[in-house]
Each structure stands twice: as C-alpha cells, then as structure tokens.
Design a protein that fits this description.
The chain is of the alpha/beta class. 52% of the residues lie in helices and 13% in strands.
Length: 208
C-alpha cells in the first residue's frame, strides 16, 4: 500500500521545506495545495469577483491580487468563508486528479488540510510544529510584514494549531535546517518500511 501523506502546520513553520525533503527521500510526488489555490484565483476569477464585487481586489493587469484579497479575508471571517467555499472544492478536486495520475507515494503540503476534505485522501498526517517567535521572524523576513500583521494572520490560523493532535506524527522544527533534513530522512525510512508491511498499526510519534 502506498503512502499518501498530508503535511500541515502554521504559516512559515517550515512545512514547505520539510514536505519537499520528505518527498525527495521517498521519491514521492510532491503536491503543493497553496499553488493549486493560486490557480483557483485564475480559474474561478469570475465567481470570486461576484462575491467581492464591492472590494478592490484586482491588480493593474486586471488579475486578482493575492495581497489585496488576503488583507480583506484576514480581517473578515465571513468573507474568508465565502472565498474558501469556492477555492477549497477546486483544490480538493485538483489534488484528487493528481493522486490518480501516479502509483508513487504522495506528499501533500496543505496548511489548511483540516478545513477541507483533503485529509480524507491521506492515510497519514504530519504536523510541523515551530515556536511563535520563529514563525513571526520568518514571516517578517519573507513577507516583509509587521509583527502586528503577522500575529493577525496567526490568529486566523488558530484552528490549524488546535488540530495538530489529529496528526499521526508531530515534527518539532525547533532547531536548524540540518536537523529538519535528518528528521525528513528518518521519516522517509519510516514510511518506506511502513508501506512494505502487511499489517499496519497507527501510533503517535514525536520527532525532535
């Protein structure tokens, strides 16, 4: 039985780096749900504009501006739900299509996996954990935003952190990049062994 692994965690927790390393160790297909979400803004543009007709969400090229849209939905729960009602079903169907294109193991990186039905496609879930201070530091550097805005985004993702106990494995990304590489390699061996077993028994594991 092949592995279909869902990786989730807070923004800038290190889940992207970890997911790619794990996929490489398993020679698995890596799927980035966030990138598929970007495609949804193009494919579902008309539907989104109907919901946000009173808001300025277009750029100079008449495309949906992710930053403008992000500022609106992170400050308005109702509008966030409206956007998710369109994007989540699109992302789910695209991921399902990609899974069906291969017999290889799959690693799906999806921050909001527990808000969608994507977790139902997986036979294992990994939560990537990191400290709030480290996450904010990475957000300020990579996204060029203030600490205030970073904390607002984290507040909107509280449910993601609350769902970590639904994961089969919790990866504590508390050290450096090399340590994350070691964890990805260990888990690559773990999943490689697991896929060859006839009888499988889930258990919670924490890697430091």
């Amino acid at each position: 039985m092949r592995n279909i692994i869902g990786v989730f965690g807070l923004i800038c927790s290190g889940k992207s780096s970890f997911s790619k390393m794990l996929a490489e160790n398993l020679n698995a297909l890596y799927i980035d749900a966030d990138k598929i979400g970007h495609s949804a803004l193009i494919e579902k543009k008309d539907d989104i504009l109907k919901l946000f007709y009173n808001d300025d969400i277009l750029d100079i090229y008449n495309n949906i501006d992710r930053k403008k849209l992000g500022k609106i939905v992170f400050n308005n729960k109702e509008k966030l739900k409206l956007l998710e009602s369109i994007s989540h079903s699109y992302i789910f169907e695209k991921i399902k299509e990609l899974i069906n294109t291969t017999d290889k193991d799959i690693v799906i990186e999806a921050a909001l996996i527990m808000r969608t039905d994507i977790y139902k496609l997986c036979n294992s879930l990994i939560y990537v954990n990191s400290t709030t201070s480290s996450i904010i530091k990475r957000m300020k550097k990579s996204r060029n935003i203030s600490e205030y805005d970073a904390r607002k985004i984290l507040k909107a993702q509280r449910d993601v952190k609350n769902k970590k106990l639904y994961s089969d494995i919790i990866v504590n990304n508390m050290k450096d990049y090399n340590n994350l590489c070691i964890i990805a390699k260990k888990l690559g061996m773990h999943y490689d062994f697991k896929s060859k077993r006839i009888f499988k028994q889930k258990r919670k594991r924490i890697f430091y």
